[in-house]
Design a protein that fits this description.
Radius of gyration: 22 Å
Largest sheet: 3 strands, antiparallel
Order of helices and strands: HEHHEEH
Number of domains: 1
Structural class: mainly alpha
Strand content: 5-15%
Length: 107
């Protein structure tokens, strides 16, 4: 006879797990904005467009600086595989590989 402590209750309620909608990252939103704009943009311009489109929200005081740091980090870490490329001082565009293939969303 099984011990009462080791018996499992068959009447226990099963918790339903629902997946929450995953929020889009600022880098993904910025890549989408650049793809739509088809021209180089500054980080403050990208943040303004992302916030206007309501695809991302923030409570931070300096989202443009956060975006700039993230873009520079991606360019440095991924090199030619990065989604972004620097076009001139303070302006970024989609990299040539992304523009030619039409890929603006991460894999």
């Amino acid at each position: 006879m099984p011990n009462k402590r080791t018996q499992r209750k068959t009447t226990s309620k099963v918790r339903k797990r629902t997946k929450k909608a995953r929020r889009i990252s600022l880098l993904d939103a910025a890549a989408a904005v650049l793809a739509k704009a088809q021209e180089p943009m500054t980080c403050p311009e990208m943040v303004k467009a992302v916030l206007k489109a309501r695809t991302w929200k923030t409570r931070g005081k300096t989202p443009a600086a956060t975006l700039s740091a993230a873009i520079y980090r991606e360019i440095q870490d991924k090199g030619k595989e990065a989604r972004f490329a620097k076009s001139e001082r303070g302006r970024f565009r989609l990299s040539a590989a992304r523009r030619s293939s039409g890929r603006n969303k991460p894999a």
